[in-house]
Amino acid sequence: MAISKQYLKSRPVCKVTFTVPAEEANEVVVVGDFNQWNPEEASLKKLKNGNFKGTFEIPKDSTYEFRYIIDGNYTNEIEADAFQWNDYAGTENAVLFV
User: Fold this and answer.
1) 18 falls in which pLDDT band (50, 70, 90)?
2) Gene3D superfamilies this protein is in (predicted)?
């Protein structure tokens, strides 16, 4: 899994690209504070190499908790900037600093 960040000089946003290797998966979405945890607005596109990839414009100078949903199962980004305990889910969420 990987995250890349591209800060824009013209606007106060960061283009964040999420890449998830999941050859056997049918669907991968990324949900978090930046999209109100709404899976309808967070689908990643499956590439020919088996990775799922998507780029989102996220307001910068903030911290966001997020998780991937791979075929209905929640998982964290292992290369996240940090991890934060979530009492509601009883597990950790990945954290993104932008």
Assistant:
1) very high
2) Immunoglobulins
Give the span between the Cα atoms of 73 and 61, in whole angstroms: 29
CATH number of the structural domain spanning residue 8 = 2.60.40.10
Total domains in the fold of the chain: 1
Please name the residues in contact with 69: beta carbons below 8 A apart, sequence gap of 6 or more. 27, 28, 29, 30, 31, 39, 75
Integer CA distances (angstroms), 36 to 17, 31, 49, in order: 18, 7, 30
Residues spanned by the domain of 37: 2-97
Backbone angle region of 42, left / alpha / beta, with phi > 0 → left and psi within -120 to 50 → alpha: alpha
**Which token pair is 6?**
């591209």
Q: Alpha-carbon distance 51 to 91, whole Å?
A: 25
